[in-house]
Amino acid sequence: MANKVKEAWKAGKAVVNGWLAIPNAFSAEMYAQCGWDSVTVDMQHGVQDYLSCVACFQGIQPSGVTPMVRVPWNEPGIIGKVLDAGAQGVICPMVNTPDEARRLVQYSYYPPQGTRSNGPIRAGVYGEAGGYQKTANENILVIPMIETKQAIENIEAILDVPGIDGIYVGPSDLCFSYGLEPKLDVEDPFVLGIYEKLLKETSKRGIAAGLHNGSPAYAHRMIQMGFKLVTISNEVGLMVNAAKAAVKQARGG
Amino acid sequence: MANKVKEAWKAGKAVVNGWLAIPNAFSAEMYAQCGWDSVTVDMQHGVQDYLSCVACFQGIQPSGVTPMVRVPWNEPGIIGKVLDAGAQGVICPMVNTPDEARRLVQYSYYPPQGTRSNGPIRAGVYGEAGGYQKTANENILVIPMIETKQAIENIEAILDVPGIDGIYVGPSDLCFSYGLEPKLDVEDPFVLGIYEKLLKETSKRGIAAGLHNGSPAYAHRMIQMGFKLVTISNEVGLMVNAAKAAVKQARGG
Amino acid sequence: MANKVKEAWKAGKAVVNGWLAIPNAFSAEMYAQCGWDSVTVDMQHGVQDYLSCVACFQGIQPSGVTPMVRVPWNEPGIIGKVLDAGAQGVICPMVNTPDEARRLVQYSYYPPQGTRSNGPIRAGVYGEAGGYQKTANENILVIPMIETKQAIENIEAILDVPGIDGIYVGPSDLCFSYGLEPKLDVEDPFVLGIYEKLLKETSKRGIAAGLHNGSPAYAHRMIQMGFKLVTISNEVGLMVNAAKAAVKQARGG
Amino acid sequence: MANKVKEAWKAGKAVVNGWLAIPNAFSAEMYAQCGWDSVTVDMQHGVQDYLSCVACFQGIQPSGVTPMVRVPWNEPGIIGKVLDAGAQGVICPMVNTPDEARRLVQYSYYPPQGTRSNGPIRAGVYGEAGGYQKTANENILVIPMIETKQAIENIEAILDVPGIDGIYVGPSDLCFSYGLEPKLDVEDPFVLGIYEKLLKETSKRGIAAGLHNGSPAYAHRMIQMGFKLVTISNEVGLMVNAAKAAVKQARGG
Amino acid sequence: MANKVKEAWKAGKAVVNGWLAIPNAFSAEMYAQCGWDSVTVDMQHGVQDYLSCVACFQGIQPSGVTPMVRVPWNEPGIIGKVLDAGAQGVICPMVNTPDEARRLVQYSYYPPQGTRSNGPIRAGVYGEAGGYQKTANENILVIPMIETKQAIENIEAILDVPGIDGIYVGPSDLCFSYGLEPKLDVEDPFVLGIYEKLLKETSKRGIAAGLHNGSPAYAHRMIQMGFKLVTISNEVGLMVNAAKAAVKQARGG
Amino acid sequence: MANKVKEAWKAGKAVVNGWLAIPNAFSAEMYAQCGWDSVTVDMQHGVQDYLSCVACFQGIQPSGVTPMVRVPWNEPGIIGKVLDAGAQGVICPMVNTPDEARRLVQYSYYPPQGTRSNGPIRAGVYGEAGGYQKTANENILVIPMIETKQAIENIEAILDVPGIDGIYVGPSDLCFSYGLEPKLDVEDPFVLGIYEKLLKETSKRGIAAGLHNGSPAYAHRMIQMGFKLVTISNEVGLMVNAAKAAVKQARGG
């Protein structure tokens, strides 16, 4: 199955990404039909584990949207499992050093680029015609999260690690790490300056930069600023906001 | 636990009701915190069964919102089970005759009013101080759905069945039954005329009328028209609408 | 697999029965190892459905204890399903008339005694050597619950229905039905008089009588009185009582 | 989504149908990719319930194979629920009289042909372009099981009920009902004579006949005999047979 | 939500803690209502994983009892996930060195004390008024398990690690580590001597000491000895003991 | 419970092993009855996690077949958990150095051989008579996977690590690691030469060698070559192959 994110990036386009915190295939199935280019199962902060990720992938599959995962940690067991389950992109939290980036690459790619173990139990069914294993290294996106002061300080060395396809910025952890209030849709010029730097460094290496956003308006601005992957909140966040507004309106508020 | 819907109705107020189609406790837990007076697990058209209903009830519980169920059918087994699980209201589809209404009442109440079997496995924990069984018949709402031509024709006899606390109108089935296109938020004067009749007949018997709505604006109008319980779509509908709008906005649309 | 309850009854002995309300295979597995003759999954008032019943049966299986089910209602779909899953006894609530007893028998037995449909998906694996279908009608216990005034008034006709192996008394519903407070371990002479009558009528037909009890002491008395199957509360009840006592003792109470 | 079974039948072709007893989306997903025209979730004798059926449907969806259900019983609640979940065919056990056939039709079709309630929570997403509700009555197959002596005796009246698209023969129950040993792939001339009669009566009314088979060889013969839908065992049966053979061969047997 | 364990410790009081091995929300819900100050989901030796922990937390929530977790290992992914799910205390097995203690602290606290990533998906809903992130480091208990000879030898350095709120003693592993038989409720003076030392060292640093117990009587003694958190067996252990006793008594034993 | 693999190896016999990728107890239960000596839950490449492993073990238990696990990674948390759940053998992927082998041994054995933590929540129930903890180190098999060039180069040092009971060869990863196409049932003389070397080195140390096979015929050859544990594909692979063949045959192909 073609990786729509990879294709968009090759064409210089930005993708709009959905984010799944609810561990349920039906919810994922309906959400995947809303116009996203890709949908990411959040196994770090979402209420998700490996089997709920598989269920969400099954829900996503008919939509043709590219399935990705944010893994809970930079650990070979779970990275292998989500790729076997069909993830076409791995977003990994808290990659702060080039060594951590190299380990992420190693866990994600088959030999000779990496040491991923063979056994694409579900991914193999939806793999490219020539055989999943032959194209997996080309087809899968490896995306470390840049979300600490340490990572910013190491950014050039991290980006120089071969096999990194993109980065994903976690604004609230980034703020936390600099002693600022943890939040999304930041307007602080200091943080926006970091974004500029990240866009410059990724851009000159042909690497895409992604960002987690709280609102569609901010996400739109960030696309215009140069981000190539923007996520908007998550499905439970959009649902809760919509519900609160609906209740208020129904009460005449 | 006090039944907030019953209290509101005693005070002549309308309640705003949430509707759950996603079979997941986390999703229900978050949705219950959005300002609803009550939340109903939809076991008829939602992706719900008995155990997912129990899970949703556990998610709802901390919010203090009144839990209700739309049962899949007018059948004693499942009505007993959802009441034992803690439902404080039973909305029953397709009640078209006084006999069907009497059976609904019989299945929902303990003796002597009905024949519900004793064993409130979860409800008992959150029951009134004096003992769940002593107050259950007072505390539980029995709400037949009025959603067919046949039911409209039998409406007075149905409403005269002792033990009916309210009715709930399913607009799309009602339209279907009259040969109209099945939809919510109907503007057809013929259907609105039926609503007027239902409000009049329920009102003169001290019975509340509820309605399923597609939008908060229509729900608000229906409260003003006299409905005492308005549901707005369901959680997956609000989520999907919000997501489609967010994707469009993020793309600059 | 031999039906230990049937064997005990043939030998004139009483069996001690466990009762499962927690929908979990591990909990059932541990509970089945506590010395019971049989363990019953309570699909009526327990937090159980069909798939949790199958899971509990899988947990029970290694213990060799006889698995039974209390079905939620006298309905052919679920009775067939639990038998296919491996139930060796069906306890059915609210059997109040000989016609209801006949329907229960019909749903539970293969032709020619009944109309149960063939397909013992899990039961077949653990069936008798000669083939499950050949011995099922002999091996399965059909046990209507006697728990209303109406059932007591019809008791002789109910017991005369061919295929009834035993009855099971639900004391709290029986009390409710007579306008008494619903409870277990009843000392009211009127109710005890009913028990005497039931023991006499079952005994003279070679049918066993069972009873749901709240405490082991009362259960022991009832065995001595003539009951051939005694259940003690359920696993969650025993657990909660033990926990409350332990907390109190740990606090020095 | 086009109904491949309906299309094949219109073209006079037979379909080969898979059968799911394992309540798991992954298993269903893999099985759906094996070349079947349709796959049926067996909620009667399979280890399936409503939510496992939804999960299996999600697993089946990407394959494009037509999803059907054998419901546990001729009951409006569950028939509505599986259709809402996306079933494109309903196989209903033990339809023995024209009245039972009429009730099955009533539960399966929207007005005016039937009384199915509106709310295709999952089916609506994959419905035809013009709107699911507009085409559902055309697109869904209603298939009573003919599996008793009584049904054979009533066959003409059953087949004359408007809305019946096909019948499905359960050989083991049919045998049971006639006092024969319950089994599949029957060679008894008496039973084969019944098949001939069923093929003749269905054929002259433009109704398809289906059959449950134990082996692919017998299924092939039955296609040649005139059956238009043949199921081969189920996924767990094929798996177990393959495993036993593999173990034997690995041991050199 | 106030942390009742922290409040009790500030007031110099001991808490009585429940322990959950059954992966089920209903079981947890009932157990939480038995009088415990806190209830801990045992993800190490209990039959629990992350999603069952979330379910148990949902079951516990209405009781107001403080939810804690014993994580399976000292690993940042799972520690972050259980805190996001709402754990107010983390009990971590096999902390044997000050470095391991420092890592536990790092994984458990937000910056600047630690490197926990921001995203309290469920915890945020029940957080303190001022915002979960602002008070989490104050509100969460970090409790390494002291259960090996190596840990005892390193105890002072471990206790000196900033951010340690308490320790939890695992008697059977401690015995194992010293070559003794692994068991609870130890009377061996050598082991009791270790307890004395642990109580002295923790006490002088204002740190609480907890202990896993087999019986309420021993737990009571340990409170009197100075332990500030005592667990009694687990829910399945109490259930099994109660059931064995009940069976015996019912049989007249 | 006796470890049938260990007993076979002591007697110099080879065992035939089943492999479970489907996360379902019913599927596992049926598969375990097919004649295998042992059945292994594949938590690395199978669609399995810890709770599905427990469920599969419960399904396997009545068959008396020895339950084993392939863990997702060489990590103490999950190794302890599967042993507590009842695994009698641990197959660990990607053990490439003696240090990694030593860590595997350490995580798998109780003191003094290792540092496994005490708490055999489910295993204890089915343990040997004298007490599970006393015999666990004797009864459990520790089996590193040899599946990389690095492991082959380190093979003697790995095999010399005390506590290693056997090795398990993953042919496709082994091929991958040497730059060959990843596949099973390899005929490449170079790879077969590696097998010879492994058989020689294990044999002279009294250690068993196992191999993952794609077909029963190849597995049989490998037994004859000297392998003492042969797995044949997995349950989903055998099912899919059987289904494809059945569909083809039913269509007359």
UniProtKB/TrEMBL annotation, chains A, B, C, D, E, F:
Residues 19-240 form the HpcH/HpaI aldolase/citrate lyase domain. InterPro entries: Aldolase/citrate-lyase_domain, HpcH-HpaI_aldolase, Pyrv/PenolPyrv_kinase-like_dom, Pyrv_kinase-like_dom_sf. One of its GO terms (cellular component) is cytoplasm. The keyword 4Fe-4S does not apply. Keywords: Lyase, Metal-binding. One of its GO terms (molecular function) is metal ion binding. Belongs to the HpcH/HpaI aldolase family. This is 2,4-dihydroxyhept-2-ene-1,7-dioic acid aldolase. The keyword Nucleotide-binding does not apply. It comes from the Bacteria.
